């Protein structure tokens, strides 16, 4: 009887300690890494006992939901996951601990067409150029990938004058959702943001020689309430064992 009671007390003490050690982490995450986070976050929470409170917002821009603007208003975060150069700016401003920066994944630009449409050839610069010139309409995001297409890609291909009248920067909603509705014939965005959207066919990435690669990274704000637990979470997101899940969302693992 005494042995059973001791075992029960030990189990109760262990459970109490586990609960005491568990933390509620507020995670601000943006854009292209969100699909991977939504897959890996619950797995980590179940394993660690920590609770993840997710706050979505873009890495930059004037929108009040943007991560830098949230932090500027004093909103709390234990982890921020965002475009690498936007994270660097927060580090420069003294809002994120520079030693906490973790490289997570690279994101490349891809293209979709409406489901049921034939997949056009875009494997080489010449094929991409011909496909763009033949398209009736083109949509791209209002994030870094769309700015690159509008300001640099068209210029590299020598077709900015021909494409400008039939190209649109899509604001606030996924580009693929507009392609699915038939608003645009071709849609460009980071691959990880195209794949989750129904009603479209993923064609592929644009040629590597024309790519604009976006690095996603994460860090811990200096005002974080649970920096030790946040560090463990970031180590998990960057660990080798989760890379197949990261790659399945359309991201590319960082060479380490």
From TrEMBL:
Q: List keywords of the entry alphabetically.
A: Signal
Reply yes or no: does the keyword Signal apply.
Answer: yes
Q: Which Gene3D superfamilies match?
A: Periplasmic binding protein-like II
Question: Among its keywords, does the record have Secreted?
Answer: no
Using the record, list the residue span of the signal peptide; answer none if the entry has no such feature. Answer: 1-22
Transmembrane stretches, start-end: none
Which InterPro entries does the record cross-reference, listed alphabetically?
ModA/WtpA
Q: What is this protein called?
A: Substrate-binding domain-containing protein
């Amino acid at each position: 009887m005494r042995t059973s009671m001791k075992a029960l007390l030990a189990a109760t003490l262990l459970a109490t300690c586990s609960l005491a050690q568990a933390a509620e982490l507020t995670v601000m995450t943006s854009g292209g890494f969100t699909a991977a986070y939504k897959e890996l976050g619950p797995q980590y929470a179940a394993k660690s006992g920590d609770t993840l409170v997710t706050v979505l917002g873009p890495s930059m821009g004037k929108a009040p939901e943007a991560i830098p603007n949230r932090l500027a208003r004093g909103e709390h975060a234990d982890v921020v996951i965002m475009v690498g150069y936007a994270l660097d700016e927060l580090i420069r401003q003294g809002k994120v601990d520079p030693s906490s920066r973790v490289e997570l994944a690279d994101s490349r630009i891809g293209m979709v067409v409406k489901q049921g449409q034939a997949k056009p050839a875009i494997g080489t610069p010449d094929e991409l150029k011909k496909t763009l010139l033949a398209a009736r309409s083109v949509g791209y995001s209002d994030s870094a990938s769309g700015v690159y297409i509008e300001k640099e890609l068209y210029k590299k291909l020598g077709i900015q004058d021909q494409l400008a009248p039939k190209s649109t920067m899509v604001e606030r909603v996924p580009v693929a959702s507009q392609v699915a509705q038939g608003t645009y014939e071709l849609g460009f965005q980071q691959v990880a943001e195209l794949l989750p959207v129904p009603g479209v066919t993923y064609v592929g990435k644009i040629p590597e020689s024309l790519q604009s690669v976006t690095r996603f990274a994460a860090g811990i704000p200096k005002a974080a309430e649970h920096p030790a637990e946040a560090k463990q979470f970031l180590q998990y997101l960057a660990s080798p064992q989760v890379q197949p899940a990261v790659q399945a969302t359309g991201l590319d693992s960082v060479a380490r």
